[in-house]
Write a structure and sequence with these properties.
Blueprint: H1 11-16, H2 20-27, H3 33-45, H4 47-53, H5 59-72, H6 74-86, H7 89-102, H8 108-114, H9 120-133, H10 136-145, H11 151-164
Length: 169
């Protein structure tokens, strides 16, 4: 887990090298809570890099950035909500996905707005995010999504409601 892959992670070195994937691993390091906390703090300082990496074409970097943003939590949530409202459609899709993984109810209003976007995939990802978050407001949005003009979105909403134990209508 160190820069060389052996022993305790060297969080300062990983942060200096912008090794987001390794910082994510260090943030989940089970043997030392101090390492976990240092890695989480380092990831917070790398939030802008993580946000920018969502645009990358190299998928392992995108996946690491997503994981890092989930670990960062509420400070990243606020940026992701902004992206969900204003960003390029592919960045909006990533933002919706990460917000769902965060399972934070504060993201529900932004995800509700995303349900009005013309991109079918963004609406489907938003449905999946709402299903992960749950709660009364998300359930109402999912019920409305069952009537979406895209059958994939409507099916995903129906499946989400079923998994939440809620009838469609």
């Amino acid at each position: 887990m160190s820069v060389l892959g052996f022993g305790k992670p060297n969080v300062e070195r990983l942060a200096a090298l912008n090794k987001i994937d390794q910082l994510v691993k260090a943030a989940n390091y089970k043997r030392d809570p101090a390492v976990r906390e240092a890695a989480r703090a380092a990831l917070l300082t790398k939030m802008d890099i993580c946000i920018q990496t969502l645009q990358a074409k190299h998928l392992p970097h995108v996946y690491a950035a997503r994981e890092a943003l989930i670990i960062i939590g509420p400070p990243a949530r606020d940026r992701l909500i902004f992206i969900l409202k204003e960003g390029h459609v592919h960045r909006r899709q990533d933002a919706a996905y990460v917000l769902g993984e965060m399972r934070d109810e504060e993201a529900v209003p932004a995800l509700a707005l995303a349900m009005h976007h013309p991109d079918d995939l963004l609406r489907k990802i938003s449905v999946e995010a709402l299903a992960k978050i749950g709660g009364p407001e998300a359930i109402e949005i999912l019920k409305a999504a069952c009537l979406d003009h895209d059958p994939h979105v409507a099916r995903a909403a129906g499946k989400a409601l079923n998994n939440l134990g809620v009838p469609k209508a």
